[in-house]
Predict the 3D structure of the following.
Amino acid sequence: MVRLRRLLHLDGIPWARWKVAAEVSAADEIPTDIPKRHAVIVRNDGKSKWLAFDCPCGGGHRIMLNLDEARRPRWRVTKISPLTIYPSVDDATSTRRCHFFIRGGRVTWARDEWERET
């Protein structure tokens, strides 16, 4: 029975939903290791500034979304558990593109119309 309880709390379970795992007061306080399907919110003086998480593609890159209303572009977190973010996340470089939605704690990948010119 104890073993089953441990299995139910693993980060690697495929049906686990995304949620905010921690709140910090400055971006340099964001932990190096954020568990799978978890995000960290940076909040200072009651105002949300950043949302940080590792990209769900598994490529190992960190995504930092601006939540500050005074800066553009910005995203909104409408629910922290399960996590919902508006608008979509579109992280593109010259070698890859990760474009997805997080709604109700689930990741939905956007249809990729973008192709890299070679």
User: Anything to note?
Assistant: The longest strand covers residues 47-54. Strands lie at 19-24, 38-44, 47-54, 62-66, 76-80, 83-86, 89-92, 97-103, 106-109. The mean pLDDT is 85. Residues 16-109 form one domain.
